[in-house]
Amino acid sequence: MMTNRNQFQAFPFHLVDPSPWPLLTSFALLTMALGAVMSFHGFTNGGYLLSLGFILTLSGMILWFRDVIIEGTYMGNHTSQVQKGLTIGVALFIVSEIFAFLSIFWAFFHSSLAPTIEIGSSWPPFGIEALDPFAIPLLNTILLLSSGKICLTWDLDYIHLASITLLPFNLPRTPSIKRIGPHNFDILSILICSLLGDGHASKDPRGNGTVFRFYYGTVNMEYALYLHKIISKLGYCSLSIPEARTRTIKNYNYSDGNIIPAPSDKTTRGIIRFNTYTYSSFNWIHDSFYLNNIKRVPEFIGDYLTPQGLAHWIMDDGNYIRDRGLRISTHSFTYKEVSFLSELLTNKYGLKTSLHSGKIENTHVIYISKKSLPDLIEIVRPFMLNSMLYKLGL
Questions:
Q1: Residue 91 and residue 96: Cα distance in Å, rounded?
Q2: What is the pTM of this model?
């Protein structure tokens, strides 16, 4: 049964918390405007007031942007609906700018090409000296085009505004106990389905939050980096690309259902791993999947077994068996849980599945029939890495 999720709101929209930054920014802009006017007219200390207003305005912008970034990353408030609203808002702003400049150019060309009697039937009007187009207008055009070029080519993924500490009370990190969501459904699907494979979730020692850990061999480095890119772009882990490392591990053999050390009991292997940020609102996932530190399959798994989640499960634990179909390793689950997953794949996606014994005694794996592979490929291929298509027999 699904655990309590009182920390999650029933609707996907973000209700903004009260913030001091709009008020601070408005007073800062007023100060900067007054300082500019005083400075232009030679008032005493006008330049100092202009500088103070500029610093306060810049501080307000940084603090305001920081809070927005934290809302969209650490706190997970920017759901798909919120992102859609932001996109529409930016689009409407661009459209309004287009029409604003259209009206300006329309007025200019109307007056210059057909000057009316009110302006002396000439352009420019009598008594007005036009600027040299190759002086200040040319400089302004160069600055405008170059600034646009810089903004378009600057990789904003690596601007860590949330980590800027400008004032003593500007704390860039949000404690895990305050990271409550609601979360984007895609990230929930990916993280929850990763626990069906090699993904692992654990609570911090103080029990304030849950972190997801991903651990792969370097043979699967491309998939590990692909998964990290998805999770980091959704704002749930560091943007720093994980690096491959070496680790010495023990080897084991399977004999009559027993695990015994191998003759050569140690091997040095390359590994790559990364973690998500810690969220208190992930605790319900951990509590649903783990009982006495033993992983289990929760009943609500079907709600999150999306095509994208299924693709990650296959890339993690799937294996194409020629003339038999696709095998999904489910050794860590009980027969009842594996049977439940098998029926779920059949009922939700119409895939023909069967259960087989695993390599270890009392373990079972799921086989998706070869006849169902075309349907499976159509479902998951949009979310599969090209290098992982071999797991579908492609």
A1: 9
A2: 0.58
